[in-house]
Specification:
Length: about 450
């Protein structure tokens, strides 16, 4: 368990609390050393003088009158002390506090210098009595107001706690206002990392925080502009390549009767591969466009893709889980699942399995091939644009955009793409989508 917080807010809050506590302790020690102790020293000096005066008075009286003098003095002292104790609301305190012990030692040292051997006794009301030896007879003199009523009054404690709480509340309020813009920056960064464009951050607050928000907004704007330029470039290149590809395909058809069948087949496959790469460029540049979500049955879409694959000699093994109708962008989702199937056929081996199922609050569309799979560290790279796996996985050239397009479409639907290779199995490409039931869906 970590006692030191990891967040900036937690660390600053801890620092504020520690500083306030240390400040309160320092203030209490300062009050003790500069106010209480000097005052107690003055009282101790006054008490020592009173003791000396009482002793001198007893010596001046005849021995027979001394007990009456002591009794009268004690009655007055007890009456005054009872009034003070009643107003303070205190009871008997059998143990002396550290400050009281220091006070008693100070008084004892002073009267010892006057030749009085100090012996103290705790009275029933909590006060103290001092023994005076006069001509061999002992007299117990009640000391009025020898000890302070208390070291720290309730008002002092209440003021200290109240000021500490007010300072803490104000500091935490200020820190929360300072921390809120940073939380917005973190949330916007997470949104950007998830493939979505965050809303512009307000550029207010302290200068440093406003600078961070402004810089982040400029970063998002630069990334948006870069993405537009890349999409425009890919769209332009793809459009320009379509015309020569069409001419090549037409030339192959014209020369089919004059060329070797193997050469014609090779040239046809090359043209189809280039056309597929150009198609991926166009899909990546197109993005999601303005397609609106609509009620879609993923089971029906899987059957349609399986029928299209069978027409081209690429049969699929369907394992449908009777998933409910959900709201999604149908053309984009068809493109994503089609890319997963194309990736399985290009880089894996049959059989290719297409399955759908419900997993908790998610719908899972999974494509499994019988190939060699991928290395554990390749999954993150393959989900990025223009990144390809190792050459031995099928050895087929590609643009490295198929899985990047699937990742983008999954994020646009609030889902994610998972790639893994279980031991002894091929690649499992798993598209997880949130359960957004369409109106009227089951």
């Amino acid at each position: 368990m970590r006692l030191f917080p990891r967040s900036l807010f937690g660390r600053n809050a801890l620092l504020i609390v520690v500083l306030i506590v240390l400040g309160q302790l320092g203030g209490a020690l300062l009050l003790r050393e500069m106010v209480l102790k000097p005052r107690l020293d003055q009282i101790a000096e006054s008490v020592a003088r009173n003791v000396d005066a009482i002793r001198s008075g007893l010596l001046a009286l005849p021995p027979a009158q001394r007990p009456a003098f002591v009794d009268g003095f004690n009655r007055q002292a007890l009456a005054g002390r009872a009034d003070r104790t009643r107003r303070a609301g205190e009871g008997l305190r059998p143990m002396l506090t550290p400050l009281e012990r220091s006070f008693v030692r100070s008084v004892s040292a002073r009267i010892a210098s006057l030749g009085v051997d100090a012996v103290w006794r705790r009275e029933e009301d909590g006060g103290l009595a001092l023994r005076l030896m006069v001509d061999g007879s002992e007299h117990w003199i009640v000391m009025p107001g020898v000890l302070p009523a208390r070291e720290f009054t309730g008002a002092l404690v209440a003021v200290s706690i109240g000021s500490a709480l007010l300072a803490l509340a104000g500091a935490l309020w200020f820190q929360r206002r300072l921390n809120r813009p940073l939380v917005r920056v973190v949330q916007a960064a997470q949104t950007l990392a998830g493939g979505h464009e965050p809303v512009p951050l307000p550029e207010d607050g302290p200068t440093e925080v406003a600078t961070v928000s402004r810089s982040f907004n400029q970063l998002v704007s630069s990334l948006r502009q870069t993405e537009r330029e890349r999409a425009l470039m890919l769209a332009g290149i793809s459009h320009d390549l379509r015309t020569p590809l069409t001419k090549l395909r037409l030339g192959v058809e014209i020369l089919r009767e004059r060329m070797e069948p193997e050469l014609v087949s090779s040239m046809t496959r090359s043209v189809e591969e280039m056309d597929a790469i150009v198609g991926q460029f166009l899909d990546f540049a197109r993005g999601e466009g303005d397609e609106k979500p609509a009620a879609t049955s993923l089971d029906d879409m899987a059957c349609s893709l399986a029928a299209a694959g069978a027409d081209h000699g690429r049969p699929l093994v369907l394992q449908l889980g009777d998933v409910p109708t959900v709201a999604l962008r149908p053309q984009a989702m068809r493109r994503a699942i089609g890319n997963l199937i194309e990736n399985a056929w290009r880089h894996g081996r049959p059989p290719v399995i297409l399955s759908t199922r419900v997993d908790g609050d998610e719908i899972v569309v999974e494509v499994i091939d019988g190939g060699d799979g991928i290395e554990p560290g390749e999954a993150d790279a393959l989900r990025q644009a223009f990144r390809r796996g190792r050459a031995e996985r099928g050895g087929v050239a590609g643009a490295g955009l198929g899985l990047a397009i699937v990742q983008r479409i999954a994020q646009a639907h609030g889902g994610r793409l998972e790639l893994e290779t279980p031991p002894g199995a091929g690649l499992h490409a798993r598209l997880r989508l949130p359960m957004q039931i369409a109106p009227g869906g089951t």
